[in-house]
Amino acid sequence: MLDNTATTSTKSKMSARDVKVFYGEKQAIKGVSIDIDMDNVVAFIGPSGCGKSTFLRTLNRMNDTIPIARVEGDITLDGENIYSSSMDVVQLRARVGMVFQKPNPFPKSIYDNVAYGPRIHGLAPNKAELDQIVENSLVRAGLWNEVKDRLQDSGTALSGGQQQRLCIARAIAVDPEVILMDEPCSALDPIATAKIEELIHELRGRYAIVIVTHNMQQAARVSQKTAFFHLGTMVEYGDTSDIFTNPREERTRDYITGRYG
Ligand SMILES: Nc1ncnc2c1ncn2[C@@H]1O[C@H](COP(=O)(O)OP(=O)(O)OP(=O)(O)O)[C@@H](O)[C@H]1O
Ligand SMILES: [Mg+2]
């Protein structure tokens, strides 16, 4: 068996060791170890049902919201165990933000969508600073120019691609360290997709970013590291260029060449 999981490095923002996830009796993740650093966008690829979303959700404890889900193993953020009883889960989810497949803005104004997190986390002492956080987040999410004159309009009135950038702005507004994206472009047209990909490039280095995608070209375009999942295991993890041109495992090659999936 190949040991292609990186050993713990001081640069790792997040580390998972031998993570297992069960839904009731059924085991969905069978011992996954991975390191995620600040410098690289990591893509998770693999056939439907192999556990990409399940594993992604372990990284900010979103599986806690699924009653039958149980997580084993160790996951650390800056060396701190995120499953320890002293971990504040609300705080954790601000530090490790998530963007979902279907854009899910709150039924509130564009402004309030972005201001929501900073308000509940007490990040802005006054209105002027909150305004600034909202503007900066929308700028960074590449949405400011499109919405600056309509901040009081409902977030749900935006186009799908704009809504997804609004959700990214909302995640950014609380100054996260890690951003998890679960197929963020699958509901978007090619132009909106290109905008999100451009945004991922711009956000790289400022946040650790993990993106689940079924789109091989997208994985190749946006990521520097790729993890291939299959049947609840992580088969291979390495430089994206190697995974796509010279995978070590036959199962990876079969998947990226479209033999199954
Ligand atoms: N809430 C849940 N309750 C029970 N089983 C679940 C739940 N969520 C996922 N599973 C099961 O866990 C396994 C992994 O599912 P998961 O959604 O993580 O796969 P995925 O790789 O993200 O798939 P896709 O590419 O289709 O999104 C599947 O067998 C799925 O049926
Ligand atoms: Mg999924």
UniProtKB/TrEMBL annotation:
Pfam families: ABC_tran. Residues 14-256 form the ABC transporter domain. GO terms for biological process: phosphate ion transmembrane transport. It comes from the Bacteria. One of its GO terms (cellular component) is plasma membrane. InterPro entries: AAA+_ATPase, ABC_transporter-like_ATP-bd, ABC_transporter-like_CS, P-loop_NTPase, PstB-like. The keyword Nucleotide-binding applies. Keywords: ATP-binding, Cell membrane, Membrane, Nucleotide-binding, Phosphate transport, Translocase, Transport. GO terms for molecular function: ATP binding; ATP hydrolysis activity; phosphate transmembrane transporter activity. It is a peripheral membrane protein. The keyword Acyltransferase does not apply. Its main location: membrane. It is found in: Cell inner membrane. Part of the ABC transporter complex PstSACB involved in phosphate import. Responsible for energy coupling to the transport system. NCBIfam families: 3a0107s01c2. This is Phosphate ABC transporter ATP-binding protein (PhoT family). It comes from Blastomonas natatoria.
